[in-house]
Amino acid sequence: MSALLTIAAEPVAEFLPVSRTQADGDVVKFCQRTHDGYEIESVIIPMGARDNTWRTLCVSSQIGCARGCTFCQTAQMGLLRNLSVEEIIGQVRAAREHFGATVRNLVFMGMGEPMDNLDNVIESIRRLHDDNANQIPRRRVTVSTVGRCEGIRKLAALGWRRLNLAVSLNAPNDEIRSQIMPINRVEPMAMLREAIASYPVRAGGHVLIEYVLIKGVNDQPEHARQLAEYLAGLSTCVNLIPYNPRENSPYEAPTEAASDEFQTILMQSGQLAFRRWPKGQSAMAACGQLGNLALRRGATS
């Protein structure tokens, strides 16, 4: 079957072939080999409360990442390069045409920091939104960031009120966040809070706050109370993510009791919060697990 597709009346080159796949139940991680010998990793995630009839596609915006978050597999690769617009859109085409997936939602939560490749990310979103035959509207797209405030402001300036923003916060205070997320040393939480507050959300909408719970690091009751205080007055929803181990990780997942208590404290404080149940761990396809370390900077592929 031909992979030629027309987006916004412009011919688009054939998508990169799928080089390998890993599955954990209905969760499928697939890789596309690039012309320069790297791999793009994407994840097809079944959704739908009853019958899993549609899919969220987690796409990458870079190969590797420069941001150095200590709990993340991709960060261990270093940044290898940005993905082109065609390589980003090609992940969607591969999911649809190679796997036959009904892609309803798109999340920029794969390899890389989307704000570090923002021009290509924005153009990808524009083309997918304008594709009359296979549209993914902006209201079904989420861009996740480690906290690049300039990038958040640039997205806000577009005036796309229905484009969803997710912020990977993962800590209740600057001390912890600077230890696990180096970005915080140059863009601390007060600066980030201002950027979140200025982001335009639709009526009834929220900025998604992603919070990876790590045993003994950021999962204690006092951390939940500090987080609730930090987010007070903002239109946010907290997504609690029990830690998914990377290779050679020094961290552990929290206990169920600690996760439950953390969520309860947030909810009792008036902060909307929900749990993300692990999907794709055995295929290294869960949050924070993408990346082939054999391809990292300085290694031989």
Essential attributes:
TIM Barrel, disordered N terminus, 7 helices, ten-stranded mixed beta sheet, 301 residues, alpha/beta, globular, two-stranded antiparallel ribbon
Model description:
There is one protein chain. This protein has about 300 residues and is of the alpha/beta class. The protein folds into two domains: about 1-145, Aldolase class I (TIM Barrel); about 170-275, TIM Barrel, CATH 3.20.20.70. About 25% of the residues lie in helices and about 25% in strands. The chain has seven helices and 14 strands. The strands form three sheets. A ten-stranded mixed sheet has the order 3-4-5-6-9-10-11-12-13-14, covered by helices on one side. β5 and β6 (about 55-60) form a beta hairpin. The longest helix has 13 residues, at about 85-95. It is globular and about 50 Å long. Mean pLDDT is about 90; it is low at about 1-10.
Per CATH, the architecture of the largest domain is: Alpha-Beta Barrel
CATH topology of the largest domain: TIM Barrel
Q: CATH class of the largest domain, please?
A: Alpha Beta
| Helix count from the secondary structure assignment | 7
What series of H and E elements makes up the topology? Answer: EEEEEEEEHEHEHEHHEHEHE
Q: How large a portion of the residues is in β-strands, by DSSP E?
A: 15-25%
The average pLDDT score comes to 90
CATH superfamily of the largest domain: Aldolase class I
**Tally of distinct domains:** 2
